[in-house]
Specification:
alpha/beta; single chain; 3 domains; 375 residues; 15 helices; three-stranded antiparallel β-sheet; Dna Topoisomerase Vi A Subunit, Chain: A, domain 2; four-stranded parallel β-sheet
Length: 375
């Protein structure tokens, strides 16, 4: 193998410097978006300013880094004449065993045993242990809530964005190591629980069974929520007087198609929707609303007060979805309440998101403004 070209070496230094600024410790792969690769390339004094020649030069440097196993390009490319990957993976520069772990926190008494595993834990496990420990030390409200709501509270408030890009989903991906491999202990420690919600289907609309909450009243409204934890929390926080007939979990993008399961026999006159404030979360109800119009179904409208609460109490985090232009963002958010469109559009332009689980069970039982969405 030939030696690494000096320009490729300098590009690698730029990429490592950026990754370190994001909290990377070099013990695992680091995803680098192509926009950041371009920024690192353009920081080199000898980069080609011309677009075509610049792409050619950058492509050659990336191939050199790949041959030396310093980076790995993503599978998808931009389909340009000189194709470039949409992202690259910066390979680890050290091993977890050789890296010096950061100092341990002052442990909460309920997880003091984790001190024995600190040295051998992965960087992400340490980051998770630290966030949970900080949460425990904060004298938190321990009202039992769905695990995704608790995860969002812990990692959305006390976690590092680089480690937990989707904080509400953390416990779905973090399964190994002490504490995380012991589900019973984890749930007891966090005062949380898992839930098995039903879907919005013809069966859902017709059947009524204990513990499923398919039908929640005799009203003519159908409320659909994007994520399962929020579905459970709304079911258990509903006011005594409401106009809902059904409260359903839309299962993300499945709602776009499943809305066609609604028929006249269900007596539904309107569908209200509540979801994440991100690219997918905005597209889902917008597409469902158009499907409803096409098939002469009840209109799909936003749950205005729930969305207003989300914008007020939620914290935004990075989204793994692409950023959109100002024009595209303005078009995508036209389904949302006018008061929320500017906030939502800015999130899409900046590549950020707000998870709907911020409007969780505790919020719902303490506030009442959202009751207007179910009457």
């Amino acid at each position: 193998m030939t030696s690494l070209h000096p320009h490729a070496h300098d590009l690698h230094v730029q990429l490592v410097g950026w990754a370190n600024s994001q909290g990377w410790r070099g013990t695992s792969r680091k995803k680098v978006p192509i926009a950041q690769v371009w920024a690192a390339f353009q920081a080199l004094k000898y980069h080609e300013p011309d677009a075509v020649h610049g792409s050619t030069q950058l492509s050659q440097l990336l191939k050199d880094l790949q041959e030396h196993r310093l980076v790995t390009p993503g599978r998808a490319d931009d389909r340009e004449k000189i194709p470039l990957p949409l992202l690259v993976w910066l390979e680890a520069t050290t091993t977890a065993s050789s890296a010096t772990p950061p100092p341990m926190p002052r442990w909460h008494h309920s997880i003091y045993d984790l001190a024995h595993h600190w040295q051998t834990a992965t960087p992400k496990q340490r980051a998770a242990y630290t966030a949970i420990n900080t949460w425990l030390m904060s004298n938190p409200d321990q009202t039992p809530v769905p695990i995704r709501e608790r995860a969002l509270e812990i990692f959305g408030m006390f976690g590092i964005e680089d480690h937990f890009p989707f904080p509400e989903k953390t416990f779905g991906t973090l399964k190994s190591g002490p504490l995380f491999s012991d589900t019973d202990r984890l749930l007891a420690l966090l005062h949380a629980f898992t839930i098995p919600p039903p879907l919005l289907t013809e069966r859902f609309l017709n059947e009524v069974g204990d513990g499923y909450y398919q039908r929640v009243g005799k009203g003519d409204l159908l409320m659909v929520v994007e994520n399962s934890a929020t579905w459970w929390s709304l079911v258990h926080a509903l006011p005594q007087d409401h106009s809902l007939g059904y409260l359903a979990w839309g299962l993300g993008n499945t709602f776009t198609a499943s809305i066609e399961s609604i028929s006249d026999k269900h007596g539904i006159t309107e569908v209200r929707y509540f979801g994440d404030l991100d690219l997918t979360g905005v597209r889902i109800p917008r597409a469902a609303a158009r499907t409803a119009i096409t098939h002469n179904l009840p209109p799909v409208r936003p749950a205005m007060h729930l969305y207003a609460d989300l914008a007020k109490v939620g914290r935004c985090t990075p989204s793994r979805e692409r950023k959109v232009s100002t024009t595209e963002a303005a078009d995508l958010v036209d389904w949302l309440p006018p008061s929320l469109r500017r906030t939502a559009a800015q999130l899409l332009v900046n590549g950020r998101r707000i998870a709907q689980e911020w409007v969780g069970y505790r919020h719902l039982i303490q506030k009442s403004t959202w009751h207007a969405d179910v009457v």
